[in-house]
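## tool: complex_structure
## caller: assistant
## args:
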Amino acid sequence: MAAHEIAVNGVSRKIEAEPEMPLLWVLRDLLHLTGPKFGCGIGMCGACTVLIDGTDQRSCQVPISTVGSKKVVTIEGLSNDNSHPLQRAWIEHDVPQCGYCQAGQIMSAAALLARVPNPTDAEINEAFQAHICRCGTYQRIREAIRIAAGAKP
Amino acid sequence: MRSAITRRSFLKIVGGMGAGFALGSFSSMGCAKAKVAKSFSPNAFVQINPTNGLVSLTVTKSEMGQGVRTACAMLIAEELDADWNSIKVVQAPGDGKVYGSQETGGSSSIRTMHLQLRQMGATARHMLIAAAAKQWEVDPLECTTESGIVHHRDSDKKATYGELASLAATMPLPVPSQLFLKSKSKFKILGKRTHRVDNPDVVNGSAVYGIDVQVNDMVYAALARPHPNGSKIEVLSETEARSIPGVIDVVKVAYGFAVIASNTWAAFKGRDALKLARVGGPLDDLSTAKILDALKAQLSAHLEMPPNAKKIEATYEFPYLAHLCMEPLNAVANVLADRCEVWSGTQNPDSVQTAVAKQLHMPVSAVTVHAPLLGGGFGRRGGDYIAKAVDISKTIQRPVKLMWTREDDILDDAFRPMGFHSLRGAVDTTGVPVAWSHQAIEAGGRHKNEEGNPIAYYGIKDVHMRRSSADIAIPVGSWRSTEFSTLIAATECFFDEMAHAAGKDPYEYRIAHVKLPRLKTVLETAVQKAGWGTALPNGSGRGIACFSGYGTFIAHIVELSVNGGNIKIDRVVCAVDCGMVVNPSGVEALMQGACCDGLSTALVNEVTIAKGLPVQTNFDTQKWMTMRTMPKVDVTIIDSNEEPGGMGESGYPSVSPAVANAVFAVTGKRVRKFPIRLQDLASQ
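## result:
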């Protein structure tokens, strides 16, 4: 076990963990931030997506030892009050069905909009190529991203 | 159909403290059509807190993405005239004695409970009005309600439901003749696009799924289990597992060997580090090809086709399908000497309570089943996985969260059965379909050479179905739309072949022969929306299919193009008549979602078997539609005054045959095997 100090949602957190323990399990089991979800463990489904220094990454594929001083943002850190444009759009456009994958979807959308304020269909496709929604909410995700971007859905 | 409540209904004060106003019922009110009807025991759907005025509505069915928490609450709130924006939805724990059947499946929740839920709301409203009228000494008939407030017109007196709750609790229950349900024109909530009640918690990560539950002193576990069925494992060495930091123990339990750890990752790593000796079993040589042979061996003679008619025959192969709930299986259990608590997403909270009580030889009342959200269900989440967590907690005498990896989840799945369907049909010299013989054989199902209910909505004179199963020990279970998932695909593909044999347009042929007016209407609507018959570019085509089941009527039109060895779905148009619509946003979402299932399993998803095991065990090989491949789904909902039909299951069955029929429209080749691969067509 080694001691790690990581910055999660603007707060410095100290934990003891094996260096190769994936960030996902540090967040979920040690820090009790259960917004990021476990879906596949191989970086193929996107349910565990968090922002690391602003880019969307699969937290199940990120060993805790590699996080260092990078800033981690989980779905819990997107806003204090559901006021983030993506959260508002997700609620208003009724995106979630079972909702399990949506934290990951929203975090990738946040990274995309930070990079490309008004993404094209092709850019959305590219950003979401490794996100699976078993309930099939893709159409509403796309429309909600457009709403959050201030465009017509 | 009665819409009034019975005298056996009763009122009780919550918590015995006189602190609130709650309604319950001993009766199975309005459930005359309920297939899942057990008699209802005392239960509480409406609770109004006199202190803070909070209106809590209890939902007894499990939320797995179908929107049941929203829809059930809407039904109660409408007749209660509650302020929708301030109600609280409470999830009932598993308890059949209090809530009746909580089985959530078969698109049954709204179909079986809609009247009962509305009556619960109406009863509460009646008693709140009675309380106000008593307090104001006015005629209750002069009082109206709106958004959680009772109003007396002439005196302009107003009181909130919270202010009236204590007095309402002392009012007599209305007799059936006193209770009226609203007409559709008076609806303020039902039939209006309504946001899911869980959205705010989902979008900030605070929504609690089974996998998110953490309780004091809890440890994590992963199981080493023998696969496939019938094989055995023994632990040769646990030293390596125990040396992994975080691993606490390795214990033999009823279902295998459990590695106990301080976190999920250590439990998984420890489990994988166990050195196991495996003794093979009878399924070790099983493969998809062998199963297919076993299915074909179950075929018997078809219905004799009439002479002088044009005869058509076809076969269709369907793969096993895994459930792939985004949330892998998991369960938290805490077994104590005289009681047990479990937390796990399940479609059967009430039967889990009785099953766990039986497992532990405890009275049912000693078992508490919490019902968190399910990250998908699709027929998978009965409760077998909960028994395993209970077993481990009992063994180690600590609360435990048993976790499945994605691979474990697929290895422990009960798949949609693999199937082989053989059909024969005949059209007479004028093109009328006159005979139809359908043999549906599935792997490991329960049918043993028996007559089945044929899909008979085309009014074919001589129609017959025979269902059978090959004795294959790979576990199978319910999967979205259960048996219809294959029966309708075969039926709708074959009817297209009959249309072709008759020289008719597949849509015109359906309209000419379909016997259900509501099915006809959805076909006509979809065709109009899709521009059926209008020109498409070379390499593109449309396919049509329809389905009637769960009280709902659906037509799908798929537009696709075949280009460079790929099938690209360009657009899907569907029309749905599900009777009275509770939440249009929910109906539309379920149509879009089921369409995604239908396209995924038509084109890319399957489970094949090698050495008795599923070949595809994670999302690298378990393919699904993605943002890039999923087309726009255009949903039209038919306005209807009929009773509400089911929506969880019904959007699935007619998607894949519409794809297959569109593939024929483009390639001139019939799909004989799902998922559809162009190379399989080429070899015809």
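## assistant note: The first helix of chain A runs from residue 23 to 30. Chain A touches chain B through 60 residues (CB under 8 Å). Handing back to user.
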